[in-house]
Sequence to fold (171 residues):
Amino acid sequence: FKNDDDFFGDLMANAEFEAEFIQRMNTWIAVVYSTTRVNQIVDSVQDRIEPEILDHIARWQPQGGLSSLNNWNNYVQEYRNFAPYRPAIILGQMANHFGVTNDTFNLNFVVNQNSGGSVLLHSVDFEVPDNYSAYYFKNIPITIKAEPDKGYRFVQWLETGSTNAEIVLNT
Fold:
């Protein structure tokens, strides 16, 4: 058996897999690492932990642990401050690692919930949320698919005029 690094390396040797990985990671950046989402999670975790922090400080400060509630709040704020920068940092790291230019385009979707269908990205059919916006690397294909709800049919993409429900963008 190969270790996980060898297996992933073998997958990345496939150009189609690598392209899908790169563009899917861009979607991940826009959804998972969005500043709004990260800050909501930080706020939620802070709300859960804060009632315990004074006891934590009393227990661990003598051994060099957290010194004050203000100190803890400053650490939490560092997470909030970093959140807006993380997407650009990851994009830069990916461009450097994969040897692609940091030349990107912004893909925007305004999906009306009453439109009678969904817009899906990638081979895993990631459903695009309302008012979705993300940066993708140019010259690396990205698959976009319209999936009509039951009783509806796909007519065309307004932007391209294509009547194919599945298109591949390669700008």
In short: The chain has a mean pLDDT of 89. The beta strands are 104-109, 117-121, 126-127, 132-137, 142-148, 166-169.
